[in-house]
Protein backbone atom coordinates (compact mmCIF):
# COMPACT_ATOMS: atom_id res chain seq x y z
CA UNK A 1 0.00 0.00 0.00
CA UNK A 2 1.18 3.51 -0.80
CA UNK A 3 2.29 5.51 2.24
CA UNK A 4 0.89 9.06 2.14
CA UNK A 5 2.40 10.21 5.41
CA UNK A 6 5.08 12.41 3.71
CA UNK A 7 2.84 14.25 1.26
CA UNK A 8 -0.89 13.73 1.06
CA UNK A 9 -1.04 15.45 -2.39
CA UNK A 10 1.27 13.03 -4.17
CA UNK A 11 -0.53 10.36 -6.21
CA UNK A 12 0.66 6.76 -6.20
CA UNK A 13 1.18 6.71 -9.99
CA UNK A 14 3.48 9.76 -9.73
CA UNK A 15 5.98 7.82 -7.61
CA UNK A 16 8.91 6.35 -9.51
CA UNK A 17 11.62 4.04 -8.32
CA UNK A 18 15.21 5.01 -9.12
CA UNK A 19 17.00 2.87 -11.73
CA UNK A 20 19.05 0.13 -10.17
CA UNK A 21 22.81 0.72 -10.39
CA UNK A 22 23.22 -2.31 -12.62
CA UNK A 23 21.11 -0.66 -15.33
CA UNK A 24 22.77 2.76 -15.29
CA UNK A 25 26.37 1.54 -14.84
CA UNK A 26 26.51 -0.80 -17.83
CA UNK A 27 29.89 -0.72 -19.57
CA UNK A 28 29.86 -0.81 -23.34
CA UNK A 29 31.89 -3.52 -25.04
CA UNK A 30 34.45 -2.19 -27.51
CA UNK A 31 35.10 -4.12 -30.70
CA UNK A 32 38.30 -3.02 -32.44
CA UNK A 33 39.79 -3.72 -35.86
CA UNK A 34 43.34 -2.57 -36.66
CA UNK A 35 44.41 -2.70 -40.30
CA UNK A 36 48.12 -2.53 -41.13
CA UNK A 37 48.40 -1.06 -44.61
CA UNK A 38 50.32 1.75 -46.27
CA UNK A 39 47.78 2.64 -48.93
CA UNK A 40 49.77 5.61 -50.26
CA UNK A 41 49.66 9.36 -49.72
CA UNK A 42 46.22 10.85 -50.34
CA UNK A 43 44.43 7.49 -50.07
CA UNK A 44 42.26 6.20 -47.26
CA UNK A 45 40.90 2.87 -46.05
CA UNK A 46 37.21 2.13 -45.66
CA UNK A 47 35.25 -0.78 -44.23
CA UNK A 48 32.12 -2.27 -45.76
CA UNK A 49 30.09 -5.15 -44.46
CA UNK A 50 27.13 -6.33 -42.45
CA UNK A 51 26.44 -5.87 -38.74
CA UNK A 52 27.13 -3.00 -36.32
CA UNK A 53 25.89 -0.28 -38.70
CA UNK A 54 28.06 -1.47 -41.60
CA UNK A 55 26.75 -1.62 -45.13
CA UNK A 56 27.89 -3.36 -48.31
CA UNK A 57 26.63 -0.31 -50.26
CA UNK A 58 28.74 2.46 -48.69
CA UNK A 59 31.93 2.24 -46.66
CA UNK A 60 32.85 3.86 -43.38
CA UNK A 61 36.20 5.67 -43.19
CA UNK A 62 38.75 4.06 -40.87
CA UNK A 63 40.69 6.31 -38.51
CA UNK A 64 44.31 6.75 -39.57
CA UNK A 65 46.51 6.57 -36.46
CA UNK A 66 49.91 6.01 -38.12
CA UNK A 67 51.32 6.03 -41.65
CA UNK A 68 50.41 2.34 -42.05
CA UNK A 69 47.84 1.80 -39.31
CA UNK A 70 44.08 2.27 -39.53
CA UNK A 71 41.42 1.59 -36.89
CA UNK A 72 37.70 0.92 -36.83
CA UNK A 73 35.96 0.42 -33.53
CA UNK A 74 32.42 0.26 -32.29
CA UNK A 75 30.46 -0.04 -29.09
CA UNK A 76 27.22 -0.78 -30.95
CA UNK A 77 25.69 -4.15 -30.05
CA UNK A 78 25.76 -6.84 -32.76
CA UNK A 79 25.90 -10.63 -33.14
CA UNK A 80 28.72 -10.86 -35.69
CA UNK A 81 30.28 -8.52 -38.23
CA UNK A 82 31.25 -9.62 -41.72
CA UNK A 83 33.49 -7.14 -43.54
CA UNK A 84 36.06 -6.26 -46.17
CA UNK A 85 38.49 -3.34 -46.41
CA UNK A 86 38.59 -1.02 -49.42
CA UNK A 87 41.01 1.63 -50.66
CA UNK A 88 39.14 4.93 -51.18
CA UNK A 89 35.86 3.01 -50.81
CA UNK A 90 36.37 1.68 -54.34
CA UNK A 91 38.96 -1.12 -54.47
CA UNK A 92 38.14 -4.23 -52.42
CA UNK A 93 40.82 -6.29 -50.75
CA UNK A 94 41.25 -9.77 -52.25
CA UNK A 95 40.16 -12.99 -50.58
CA UNK A 96 37.23 -14.04 -48.44
CA UNK A 97 35.18 -11.81 -46.16
CA UNK A 98 36.34 -11.50 -42.55
CA UNK A 99 34.24 -12.06 -39.40
CA UNK A 100 34.47 -10.31 -36.06
CA UNK A 101 32.68 -11.16 -32.80
CA UNK A 102 31.46 -8.56 -30.28
CA UNK A 103 34.25 -7.41 -27.98
CA UNK A 104 36.95 -8.91 -30.19
CA UNK A 105 40.19 -7.24 -31.23
CA UNK A 106 41.65 -8.11 -34.62
CA UNK A 107 44.80 -6.85 -36.33
CA UNK A 108 45.73 -7.90 -39.85
CA UNK A 109 47.23 -6.80 -43.16
CA UNK A 110 44.92 -6.95 -46.19
CA UNK A 111 46.05 -7.79 -49.73
CA UNK A 112 44.92 -5.67 -52.64
Short account of what is shown:
By secondary structure, the chain is mainly beta. The chain has one helix at residues 21-24, and strands spanning 31-36, 45-50, 60-61, 63-66, 69-74, 81-87, 91-92, 98-100, 105-108.
Walk me through what this model shows.
4% of the residues lie in helices and 36% in strands. The chain is mainly beta and 112 residues long. The chain has one helix at 21-24; strands at residues 31-36, 45-50, 60-61, 63-66, 69-74, 81-87, 91-92, 98-100, 105-108. The chain has a single domain (15-108), classed as Sandwich (Immunoglobulin-like), CATH 2.60.40. The longest helix has 4 residues, at 21-24. Strands 2, 3, 6, 7 and 8 form a five-stranded antiparallel sheet that branches. A four-stranded mixed sheet has the order 4-5-1-9, with no helix packed on it. The chain is built from one helix and nine strands, in the order αβββββββββ.
Amino acid sequence: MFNKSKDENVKEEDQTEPCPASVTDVKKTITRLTVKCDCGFGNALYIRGQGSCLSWDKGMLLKNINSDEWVWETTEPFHTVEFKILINDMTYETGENHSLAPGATLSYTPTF
